[in-house]
Design a protein that fits this description.
Elements (H helix, E strand, L loop, with lengths): L2 H27 L5 H14 L5 H32 L7 H28 L1 E3 L3 E2 L2 E5 L5 E4 L3 E2 L10 E5 L1
Antiparallel strand pairs: 1-6, 2-5, 3-4, 3-6
Length: about 170
């Protein structure tokens, strides 16, 4: 086989591989086919279109199955290794320290989000709001806004900051 023929054959095989993978993915995401059924149907459709022989599509389908199995094997081994690595009995003091730092950082972030959320729930006298309950942040008095309107000062302590709830 000449270099040009070999390159063309290789390009055809790569092209067929990509087409079968793409069609197989479409068939499987529709939820109607197993992997084997989808691979066979994709190969059959491409070979019946005349661009590739049935033998070529079967050969490429074998490669695709091999690659998928490799991913599955690698993933399952990685999952097993990760499970072993994070087993609490194997965690060293250093790893526990790092984990504690991550959790502390997460707690700080959540606290910041809570403060921002709380600020978004703060309403002030003079603002207009929709119906709902307003709780005075100073004395805890609850006023009911029956309809959209301007927020009055607290009837009990005359302060001006409220937390809204519905």
């Amino acid at each position: 086989m000449t270099d040009n023929n070999q390159k063309n054959s290789e390009q055809d095989d790569v092209s067929l591989y990509e087409k079968i993978v793409s069609q197989t993915e479409e068939l499987m995401t529709s939820g109607r086919k197993t992997l084997d059924e989808a691979l066979k149907r994709a190969g059959d459709e491409l070979s019946s279109a005349g661009n590739f022989t049935r033998e070529q599509s079967e050969k490429i389908s074998t490669f695709i199955k091999r690659d998928i199995q490799h991913v599955i094997d690698t993933t399952s081994k990685s999952t097993t290794n990760v499970k072993k690595a994070v087993n609490p009995q194997r965690l060293s003091v250093g790893a526990q320290s790092i984990f504690a730092k991550i959790l502390s950082g997460t707690a700080e972030t959540l606290s910041e989000w809570a403060q921002k959320s709380e600020q978004n729930l703060e309403f002030k006298t003079g603002e207009i709001t929709s119906p709902g309950s307003l709780t005075c942040k100073e004395c805890g008095e609850v006023i009911q806004m029956k309809k959209t309107g301007r927020i009055p000062p607290c009837p009990k302590c005359h302060h001006t900051r409220y937390r809204k709830s519905y």
